[in-house]
Specification:
The protein is mainly β. Among the domains are: 36 residues, no CATH class; 39 residues, no CATH class; 121 residues, Satellite virus coat domain (Jelly Rolls), CATH 2.60.120. The protein contains 3 helices and 17 strands. The strands form 4 sheets. Strands 8, 9, 11, 13, 14, 15 and 17 form a 7-stranded antiparallel sheet that branches. A hairpin with a 2-residue loop joins β4 and β5. The longest helix has 10 residues. The protein starts with 20 loop residues before the first strand and ends with a strand. 11% of the residues are buried.
Length: 310
Amino acid sequence: MSDSPRRVPTRPTGPPLDGDFIYIEDEHRLSYGAGEELEDIPKMSEVTGGGGGGLLPANNLSDVEDVTESRTNLGLNTAATQPASAFDAAGAADAALTAANAYTDQQIAGVEGGGLPAGDLHVTGKVICPAVFGPHLVSEGDEDTGWGRRSNSVLSAYVDGQEVLRVGPSVRAIGQYDLTGPFNADVSSGFSFEQLILSTSNATTETAGNLIPLNCRIEAIMVRVLTAISGPTSIDIKVSGGNDFVEIGTADPTLSNFAAGSTYVLVPSAFADQFNSTPKKLTITATGGTPTAGEIRLVVFHRRLTPSTA
């Protein structure tokens, strides 16, 4: 500082006034008062001992004796130095994330933008799917194929929205079940079905499609009356060109209970009717009159045999 004489301000006795000067009274206090402007005010770097740039953020703790204590006193690394907008107000952000991603009481690590897991996803709790029926564990782009709930204690597999496998107290395949052996020899168990309105102009009605597939053994034909049959006294069912099927446990081929909801299980009456090497239809023949009304559902249970390819 300069050695030229200077006027020292009078020690204040009241609040500072406009035009007062701030000055260093001793090593512990700053004071203020009226007087001429002090000359050669020390640079801030000299006051702080920072060796130049002492108040820069990177250097402002460089000459402090206990840096850790000073950081605590200054509130650094605490919420005190951050704006309120930088914090989650009462869990609002977590609530929004839960609502958007349906994460409930879960901590998911390794999640990239868009909510997609980065790498494997490990959970120590449960993955809980909705209580509604249908596929829930699915692949991207094919949400109709996967695993989902069928009912209580039953898990089902779906393909294109259709249930194909049911796992519960027992395992049930819906549709067709394939068993492949050596050299691609194959046995498939499956069903074919058709809902059929009986002809009111002829005594015979034939299915529209081939319910008997190629190279198959017919296990049974299951019949259900959907709309009460009127007109004939009985009907019989056969593979087109074959013999009548009979009700299981009897040798009777005639079906005469025509009330809606009536059911029958029919089996082949002759050995030759069990096996068919070509696709065929079913024929329903009325006896005692031409039908005037009636609709039935036919479900054929069969085993298809495919020889090995080598």
